[in-house]
Amino acid sequence: MQQHKRPPAALLFIFGGSGDLNHRKLSPALFNLFIDNWMPEKFGIVGIGRRPYTTEGYHTHLMDGIRQFSRRKEEQNGKWNDFSQHVSYLQMNAEVEEEYQKIAEIVKQKEAEFGEHPNVIFYMAVAPQLVPDIAQKLGSLNICHDTKCTRIVVEKPFGHDLESAKELNNLLSSLFNEEQIYRIDHYLGKETVQNILALRFANALFEPIWNRNYIDHIQITAAETVGAEGRGDYYERSGALRDMVQNHILQLMCMIAMEAPVSFEANEIRNKKVDVLNAIRRYSNDEVHAHAVRGQYSGGWMKGQQVPGYRQEKSVSPDSPIDTFAAVKFYIDNWRWQDVPFYVRTGKRMHEKSTIINIQFKPAPSYAFPSEAADTWRPNRLTISIQPEMDIRLRFQAKRPGQSMTLNPVDMIFNYKDAYDGDEPEAYETLLLDVMEGNQTLFMRSDQVEAAWKIIMPILETWESRSPVDFPNYAPDSWGPEDAEALIARDGKNWVTLPQPHKD
Ligand SMILES: NC(=O)C1=CN([C@@H]2O[C@H](COP(=O)(O)OP(=O)(O)OC[C@H]3O[C@@H](n4cnc5c(N)ncnc54)[C@H](OP(=O)(O)O)[C@@H]3O)[C@@H](O)[C@H]2O)C=CC1
Ligand SMILES: O=C1O[C@H](COP(=O)(O)O)[C@@H](O)[C@H](O)[C@H]1O
């Protein structure tokens, strides 16, 4: 068994304990932490919802999620029985103030059982519109005011726009200290995303070329094959730009573009990231059209299966103007990145599930080789595959064996599966452990969230003020609308998909 320092005693209340996020992500993550001996010696987990569950029924529901969605499918030799002793269900309506006394009683009871005051963590796995109300009601319980060991975890989306994000920040800061607020962006918990910091700041190799002098442009693609997946209710109030760009993709941009931190202290990393967000160019409403493209999928065929269009999905309006695809060309106006375009795109029902970052370097300044020696003179590319492939590829030009001087690009590959055992923790495992340990490095600070909204707002406002005339405008199993190809082709570049070994 691995030996390491485990977090102090914790009592975790999951609002939305009967919901999808807990079923698919949170409970499997907590169980994996337990199997790996990372859960505190003394801990309790209380799922909260209005649905009635017996303790046994709740355990069966959670076990079902673990079987379906955990990276570990097995019951792990009776570990589940040990784990489930710590898990209970509290049926309560979170909109009713009096019900919160039940929480205060559980805290007291656990304090007595543990013989110490545990860190009390409130996880908001509920629809965003419920969060302010719940936070306010929790604020009326004494446990929030008198101790730093009370923490609140807020899921994305954090607000619906800049104004509502500010309101939520103001409300939370009137009830909690910033050190108690954990704004989750689950991309930051992914191993491959955290590794960007290691790649950039634990190697001297890349820093000298990591700037406008050597980098031609950067691309970030976060493509999904799934559609709205029964989340039409939520997605109709969101869309791809809000759902993926405002948070995950801008965070990836920060990881790629930030300056070197002087320490890994949470606020130092967050300061460096917010500098990037503050330097991203805000477009005027007139500039939006030239820099941003939206799309919505039609019905059609996906890997041999017929799939509905977005407008035919459950809880979606038949003339919905919501974007299920967004592509934006960003600029970061600072010394390192001036004039280097960052092309980002994300969409549902796309050809493959793949999140990749491509750093395209400029060509060599001159070539002594005959022009027919190569089919590309821009071979140098660093590709960071975030998921589902987990690798880093450095592409460079090589001489093809033979009597003539023929060049073709080859890849030097670091692959997680080959280098490690391929059993990396899921993002939510890392993030939940960080909350229990009180480490906020991978969580968003209030100013980061607001800075991200400021970038997105002009695009949202422009899109919302003009209904798209041509929706749906892309077929399932494609790479999105033609306009997205044009966005990058206008600059003489093209989107790069998962790199394939070079063949003639
Ligand atoms: N699902 C996912 O993969 C992801 C979700 N998120 C975010 O997580 C949050 C939750 O999403 P998800 O789990 O999908 O949503 P669900 O609709 O599946 O779950 C909502 C939960 O809220 C509970 N709830 C609603 N009203 C009340 C109430 N008045 N009192 C007590 N409980 C209540 C429901 O319980 P009951 O019905 O029993 O009352 C249910 O457990 C959202 O903010 C979402 O954006 C973020 C990333 C991924
Ligand atoms: O936050 C969200 O992320 C998922 C994609 O997450 P991933 O880890 O599978 O890349 C997306 O499907 C969802 O719409 C969004 O809310």
From TrEMBL:
Residues reported to bind substrate: H186, K190, E224, D243, K348, K353
Catalysed reactions, as listed in the record: D-glucose 6-phosphate + NADP(+) = 6-phospho-D-glucono-1,5-lactone + NADPH + H(+)
Pathway entry: Carbohydrate degradation; pentose phosphate pathway; D-ribulose 5-phosphate from D-glucose 6-phosphate (oxidative stage): step 1/3
EC number, UniProt record: 1.1.1.49
Keywords assigned by UniProt, alphabetized: Carbohydrate metabolism, Glucose metabolism, NADP, Oxidoreductase
Cited InterPro entries: G6P_DH, G6P_DH_AS, G6P_DH_C, G6P_DH_NAD-bd, NAD(P)-bd_dom_sf
GO cellular component, one term: cytosol
Domain Glucose-6-phosphate dehydrogenase NAD-binding: 14-195
Active site: H248
Annotated binding of NADP(+), by residue: R50, K156
Gene Ontology biological process: glucose metabolic process; pentose-phosphate shunt, oxidative branch
Enzyme's top EC category: oxidoreductase
Keyword NADP in annotation: yes
Domain Glucose-6-phosphate dehydrogenase C-terminal as annotated: residue spans: 197-495
MF GO annotations: glucose-6-phosphate dehydrogenase activity; NADP binding
Pfam family, one: G6PD_N
Signal peptide span: none
Similarity remark: Belongs to the glucose-6-phosphate dehydrogenase family.
Known function: Catalyzes the oxidation of glucose 6-phosphate to 6-phosphogluconolactone.
Protein name per the record: Glucose-6-phosphate 1-dehydrogenase
Species of provenance: Pseudobacter ginsenosidimutans
Gene that this polypeptide is encoded by: zwf
